[in-house]
């Protein structure tokens, strides 16, 4: 009993003596730059936290936004489900979700902005750190590459937001209180895309190439990924976009509807096609990724399909030479991930290898009308193939 009383007294003494320190703790929504950059490994851990938010919360590469919205593609490729079954694969659900899917756009939207805010916090910490300030910005180093990853993750979020929702809220500074976001409003998608393209062009030379210094594999964003993202965002900026019926800005209008709006392409679109062409050429001609053009498996009469061989790398838990960046996922045993993605097998309903159930339903017009009979891609992407064992 005496020891217990002594212990309690000691705790109270420590608490009282350090009360001011506890009350002075900094907000967890900001990173202490000196602490993070006391070593490159600490900075790396902080950036990995942003990757994990992207993987688990954004919904752009797994369930939610990707699975229920982005996979739609066009009305000749995928058939939407009737509302009684959830109404998935209908793009308008981003704005007007059925009751069964009401959380899907909301959770992805919130997840992407959570990821953006984490990146803004990281970027602010980098930009206030002396070691990063003094680093050469014309060539890659450990710190500049990590900074580039944070910028690229944020740009990926804004690419998906403007692709799915158009004009959205735009912020490049950390939000730590209500006052930080009260004045924010919708920003024109073109302004967001242009700004993000410029920021990506700025950090591109600061990043290591794929499979180069520091073992930068496709599990992390590299210079090749940034080059590809610049090109994709430039094509998005240069293409047609749905604008409100009241839109009166610059651009070529090809279709109008009094309620749904106008399909508009800005008059400077060629500038962005040029940017896309420039960075895609850099990716192909200067990068370390390469196309899989041969199938080394035997017997050749059974395989001989390099397109399928590229995807077989993933099924074998390997990184394909074509892979520029992949979202790292563990082989699941009791989650939706292996159930809904990948080729089916004779495993359990949530076992690994995946036991997919053909949720994405292709139309016959896509199978018979969009491929040549000898196109090796057709049966791999459309027909049902399975894993044995």
Summarize the structure.
This protein has 389 residues and is mainly alpha-helical.
List SSEs in N-to-C order. Answer: HHHHHHHHEHEHHEEEHHHHH
Mean pLDDT: 80
Which percent bin holds the helix content? Answer: 40-55%
Unreliable stretches (pLDDT < 50, length at least 5) are: 1-28
Number of strands: 5
Principal-axis shape equals globular
Keywords:
three-stranded antiparallel sheet; 389 residues; disordered N terminus
Model description:
The protein has helices at residues 2-17, 19-23, 33-36, 40-57, 65-68, 103-127, 130-133, 142-165, 178-181, 189-203, 223-238, 269-286, 306-315, 336-340, 364-369, 378-381; strands at 168-169, 186-187, 241-243, 252-257, 261-265. It has 389 residues and is mostly helical. A three-stranded antiparallel sheet has the order 3-5-4, with no helix packed on it. It has a two-stranded antiparallel sheet with strand order 1-2. The protein is globular.
Summarize the SSE layout with pairings.
Layout: H1 2-17, H2 19-23, H3 33-36, H4 40-57, H5 65-68, H6 103-127, H7 130-133, H8 142-165, E1 168-169, H9 178-181, E2 186-187, H10 189-203, H11 223-238, E3 241-243, E4 252-257, E5 261-265, H12 269-286, H13 306-315, H14 336-340, H15 364-369, H16 378-381
Antiparallel strand pairs: 1-2, 3-5, 4-5
